[in-house]
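# step 3/5: fold
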Amino acid sequence: MRRIPLLVIASFIAAPAFAQTILPSPSAEEGRAPRPPRARGIATDLAVEAAQTAIATCAAQGLKVTALVVDTAATPIAMISGDGAAAITQRIASGKATTALKMKMTSGEAGERAKTDTAFMAQLMADPAMGTPRQGGVPIMLGSDIVGAVAVSGAPSGAQDEPCARAGIAKIQDRIR
């Protein structure tokens, strides 16, 4: 079986500061703490394949995007920023994936619900990991269980991002365990 390296793009330079996607380096105390394994999620090779497929699907339409695959705790398994994707798309993809996981629906469905349900919108906005709901985050399902999410960001609209995320999931769906 061919091994695919995990690609995680941590940060890009944005004038005049750094645009950071992942958390800062752990403190010395955190570094000494026990290190439990990541939460339930799909295998790394499948996550990379889903992200690559999502990016390729969007790229075929001339879209420059980032694809993020997360486990059930919204911890990244694979994040790949396509050539020319804006750095901010990494953070937006993270919000989309987290929304899909926590709300147990696509981030687009969450956005639609938030338009008419002010309490739901307030719940989204109160969680900095979710924030403004944007279309493009899709839960990864194994039967009736959510085992992660794929999110795509960078197209002019989430309506263009979501089909790319769905293509990534479709590519690996029959191999998810």
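# step 4/5: annotate
Residues 44-59 form the longest helix (16 residues).
# step 5/5: archive (pending)
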